[in-house]
Task: inverse folding
């Protein structure tokens, strides 16, 4: 059973030889490759090489084309400030608080901003791995992209003060996510992870999620399935217990759950959804490897009879994480 077969079986609740190992290793790959984050985020070849090396180093079952949450906004004209050792900030949003998304046009992923960097990285990873491991693309979900277009504070004010205008922004963001995801699938991604951290109940109320984000995420997931994605994957970090019951309606085959939600509760809320999680990302910075390994072993034991599980972190593992703590997850699977 190779890595892709292992993941696909887990998403279908079929037997696996071991739980798939898919920690969220993005910027950490750049650090291990001796690259600045600025270089990693601007070069598809560098991204692909770093991700492939990360897979070899830790024995993971997937590589990721995730870059940062400014990619789509930058392609629409947002100004970003880049740094050597951390992710970029949006310093000049696309829309002013009084702005209307109806004035925007979809960017061409082949030429706009750094979208081509993502597509190049995905092509290279798929060429190197074929169908031996999961090549995962990434898009910002509707709420997160809308927040990037205005800036998070302005976006929340618009959502409250002018819900009709904000609905238009969410609709545009959904179309853009579909457009970019389609390009990533055509570039070789087996699946595209929808990252929507701004949809977390830590940011917007669950009632807002159900009324405004659920239908748009449904549209996004349905389209990804129609476009040939091997499965659909929704990643919302934070205290998501109040919205997890929406995920089957959304059509998420895989749901990432963070450390705020314990494994038993996630299983109760999503009995037939493949779950990915929920190791605490900050533990990879300052916990002892033995602690991380024990936590991973406990997760594996919890899901042993149930199946439908990808061993992962609940959020991105920080770029500066200790490599020994990441290696500890693999040790938990091997029974070292």
Result:
């Amino acid at each position: 059973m190779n890595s892709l077969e292992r993941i696909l079986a887990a998403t279908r609740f079929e037997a696996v030889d071991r739980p798939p190992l898919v920690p969220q290793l993005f910027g950490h790959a750049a650090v291990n490759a001796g690259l600045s984050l600025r270089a990693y985020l601007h070069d598809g070849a560098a991204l692909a090489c770093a991700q492939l090396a990360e897979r070899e180093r830790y024995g993971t079952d997937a590589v990721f084309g995730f870059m940062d949450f400014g990619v789509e906004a930058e392609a629409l004209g947002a100004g970003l400030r880049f740094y050597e050792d951390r992710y970029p900030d949006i310093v000049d949003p696309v829309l002013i608080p009084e702005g209307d998304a109806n004035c925007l046009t979809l960017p061409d992923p082949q030429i706009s901003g750094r979208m081509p960097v993502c597509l190049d990285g995905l092509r290279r990873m798929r060429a190197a791995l074929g169908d031996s491991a999961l090549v995962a693309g990434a898009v910002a979900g509707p709420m997160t992209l809308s927040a990037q277009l205005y800036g998070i504070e302005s976006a929340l004010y618009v959502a409250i003060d002018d819900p009709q205008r904000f609905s238009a922004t969410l609709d545009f963001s959904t179309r853009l996510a579909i457009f970019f995801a389609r390009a990533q699938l055509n570039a070789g991604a087996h699946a595209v992870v929808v990252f929507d951290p701004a949809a977390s109940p830590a940011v917007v109320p669950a009632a807002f999620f159900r009324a405004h984000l659920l239908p748009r995420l449904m549209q996004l997931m349905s389209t990804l399935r129609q476009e040939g994605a091997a499965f659909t994957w929704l990643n919302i970090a934070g205290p998501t217990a109040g919205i997890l019951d929406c995920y089957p309606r959304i059509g998420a085959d895989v749901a990432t759950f963070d450390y705020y939600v314990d494994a038993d509760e996630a299983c109760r809320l999503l009995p037939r959804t493949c779950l990915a999680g929920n190791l605490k990302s900050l533990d990879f910075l300052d916990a002892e490897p033995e602690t991380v390994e024990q936590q991973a072993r406990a997760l594996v034991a919890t899901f042993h009879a149930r199946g439908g599980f990808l061993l992962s972190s609940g959020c991105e593992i920080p770029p500066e994480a200790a490599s020994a703590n990441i290696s500890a997850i693999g040790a938990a699977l091997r029974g070292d």
The longest helix spans residues 163-186. The chain has a mean pLDDT of 96. The chain has one domain: 3-334.
